[in-house]
UniProtKB/TrEMBL annotation:
Membrane topology (UniProt): Multi-pass membrane protein
PROSITE patterns, A to Z: ABC_TM1
Tagged with keyword Hydrolase: no
Organism: Nonomuraea deserti
UniProt feature, compositional bias: Polar residues: 1-12
Listed Gene3D superfamilies: MetI-like (1.10.3720.10)
Swiss-Prot/TrEMBL keywords: Membrane, Transmembrane, Transmembrane helix, Transport
SUPFAM superfamilies in the record: MetI-like (SSF161098)
Family: Belongs to the binding-protein-dependent transport system permease family.
Protein name per UniProt: Sugar ABC transporter permease
Length: 317
């Protein structure tokens, strides 16, 4: 019996099997298994949660930002008037400069200090667990408790820290009256509270470096500084990018700690953007300017984070 399969001739004369018909190829690509779309119901709780906690409040703020609200039933559409007023407000500009300066100081202190703490932490033995617990302790304290601790600790009359500065160092320290003392108190408090986060991130990055790198450096006779500069620091680039972004966002939106310690004073010395926004929204109950303020605040944080991320990732290539 002869084979009826059609054979195609190649240019060299060799016989090649003909391709299958189009109908057979199409049927071969069809998955005969029934599709089950019930898995989308597992995502529904997340969608509903995000809608009620993020999307709907954001749309409410947008609605307030373009209206002048007199009462629940009386409001006037004003367009972008509140945005122009907030952008021209000298008090807002001053708070913006203070917040930006505070975030820059926080990054310049906490990032190098956190890396130094991570490098000094032990790598093996029981001391590793002890060091991790001690370093992580400030992160476990709530923000309002941290503010209360430092409010008492820095007092010159009843606080141990303030008393030591005034009586041991002979400095007239009073954060309730002096703007410089208040600024330093808030800055030191933030460094004490959040440097452990940078240290833990950097420590995790250091532990992920393969041991042969250090063995090769030891064979080559590299010093501790050379090992850190050429092996440890380049491997920490990704971790430090995350640490910088986290600390910038947290420091730029800081509210609870300085509000508990100084209340934004003395004067406006520690009145950051978040404290001023709370004053407008809650204290004065100006919903229109507060809505415009919060949207500009949110937009600026997003832009700065994008700039930080772009610069840090491109510099690592």
């Amino acid at each position: 019996m002869t084979d009826q399969t059609t054979v195609a001739q190649s240019p060299s004369g060799a016989a090649e099997p003909a391709p299958p018909p189009a109908e057979e190829a199409k049927d071969a690509r069809v998955d005969p298994r029934p599709k089950n779309n019930r898995a989308w119901w597992l995502v529904l709780p997340v969608v509903v949660s995000v809608a009620f906690t993020a999307v709907i409040p954001l749309m409410t703020v947008v609605n307030y930002s373009v209206q002048d609200v007199f009462s629940p039933s009386e409001r006037i559409f004003v367009g972008l008037e509140w945005f122009r007023e907030i952008a021209r407000d000298p008090e807002v500009r001053g708070a913006f400069v203070r917040t930006l300066l505070f975030s820059a100081q926080v990054l310049l202190i906490e990032i190098p200090l956190g890396v130094a703490v991570a490098v000094a932490m032990p790598r093996r033995g029981v001391s590793v667990s002890v060091a991790l617990v001690l370093v992580a302790l400030p992160l476990l304290i709530p923000w309002n408790v941290v503010g209360t601790i430092w409010q008492i600790f820095a007092r010159g009359d009843i606080g141990l820290g303030g008393w030591a500065i005034n009586n041991v160092l002979g400095v007239n320290f009073n954060y309730t009256l002096d703007s410089t003392d208040a600024w330093l108190t808030v800055l030191v408090m933030d460094v004490w509270h959040w440097t452990p986060l940078v240290a833990l991130l950097a420590y995790a990055g250091l532990r992920s470096i393969p041991q042969p790198y250090f063995q090769a450096a030891q064979i080559d006779g590299a010093s501790a500084w050379a090992t850190f500069r050429h092996i440890q620091l380049p491997r920490l680039r990704g971790v430090l990018t995350i640490a910088i972004l986290l600390r910038f966002m947290d420091s730029f939106m800081i509210y609870t700690e300085p509000f508990v310690v100084t209340g934004g004073g003395p004067g406006n010395a520690t009145s950051f953007l978040s404290i001023l926004l709370s004053k407008i929204a809650v204290g004065q109950f100006d919903l229109g300017p507060a809505g415009a303020f919060s949207l500009l605040y949110f937009l600026f944080v997003q832009i700065l984070c994008y700039v930080f991320f772009t610069v840090l990732t491109r510099s690592g290539r």
